[in-house]
Amino acid sequence: MAQLLASLDALFASHPAGTLVDLGISPPTASASTADRAEEPAGSFHPFIVVEGNLGIPADVVEPLFRHAHAAFFLARARRRPALDGIPRFPYRRPGTHSGSNDDEDDAVAALLASASRALALINPELYTTWNVRRDLVLAGRIRAQEEVGLIDLILTRHPKRGTLWNYRTWLTEQLIAEARKATGESTSVAAILAHEWTVCTRACDRHRMNYNAWTHRLKLLAHVGDAATARGEVARVGVWLRRNVSDHSGFAYRLSAVGRLRELLIAERAAVAAAAADQRNAGEMDDEAVVGEEVRWAKGFVVEFAGHASAWNYLACTIWCEVERRGKASGWNTWTVQDVETAVFQQPLTDAVAAATTASGQVDIFLEIVAETYLAT
Questions:
Q1: How far is it, in rounded angstroms, from Cα 71 to Cα 89?
Q2: At residue 281, does pLDDT exceed 60?
């Protein structure tokens, strides 16, 4: 069975990170049984299929590959050297350095762990120990972080919602961003990393609706958005995606967080300009007001266009709450009634605004109830 693992290693050696774009299970091999062929001389058994960047693992190869990789993985873990002077048990020594007579053994253990854990991850990405070991290999320099991103990109095409996989990707992305900032001190590399992550998240959410884990990963990346233009572009991208996935509540929740990040960046940028000009006025007030008002208008248009979807109405209620919170009690919004909201947001009663959408009458009633009980005076 070692032939299967060797063949997979050779495949990844000939296809660098990013060249494999899709992962799937292909029909069983039509030749002799996998068990018989796996005993053939080294280099003669290649069951895996690659067509235009799409990797296929034959169905009859999955089980023997997993069994062999599992055994090899835990055997390699058992061969780790004991801790010395507080050094962790795993051979953290980076390639090219020397720490004693066991260097060759350390290299062999690390290579086997990298190979076996990759095979396990392709078949079952929910093995926590697999990702913990691969994290150690990344930290030790045994696996390049960029190559690891390519591997996760591939696995996500088949397993787009696995929480363990997204948690590991979040950690890995943080490492890449930290290295980019340390190496260049500029945001250009960080922007490229964020753009790639947004693309991968969008693809994963297209493959699996209500993909909470993907949206959570994307939400954590908002902290690394450093300018208002990038944040505004992200808000716009999510808006386009939501028009194709109107019922995805996770996407709406993320958009609200992205708008919040845009508010923060606009206020900070305006404050910096005002400070440089020695201006004592409230520098962020105008931009803050424009962002919230713009989002209320966007949500209003969205519910008129997609009046039968509860997610759109819930989002409109959230944007109204943001406006109420922003203006505060001193503005008098705490005394508004449902009729005031109808007039301010729609310039007409809500039932008239969506009269053409007869299926939305229930959503209108629910929305008015939410607004009346949660946000406004009764």
A1: 20
A2: no
Work out the mean pLDDT of the chain and round it to a whole number. 80
DSSP 8-state assignment for residue 283 = T
Measure the CA–CA gap between 168 and 131, rounded to whole angstroms: 7
The larger pLDDT score, comparing residue 301 to residue 185, is at 301
CB neighbours of residue 103 within 10 Å: 14
Contacts of 193 (CB under 8 A, 6+ apart): 173, 176, 177, 180
Digit-coded pLDDT (tens) for 151-208:
999 999 999 999 999 999 999 999 999 999 887 655 568 999 999 999 999 999 999 9
Measured CA to CA, the distance from residue 140 to residue 134 in angstroms comes to 10
Provide the 10 A C-beta neighbour count for residue 91.
Answer: 24
Residues 16/44/105/80 CA torsion (nearest 10 deg): 80
With vertex at residue 102, the alpha carbon angle to CA 97 and CA 106, rounded to the nearest 5 degrees, is: 70
**C-alpha radius of gyration, the chain, whole number:** 27
Tell me the β-bridge partners of 55. Answer: 23, 50
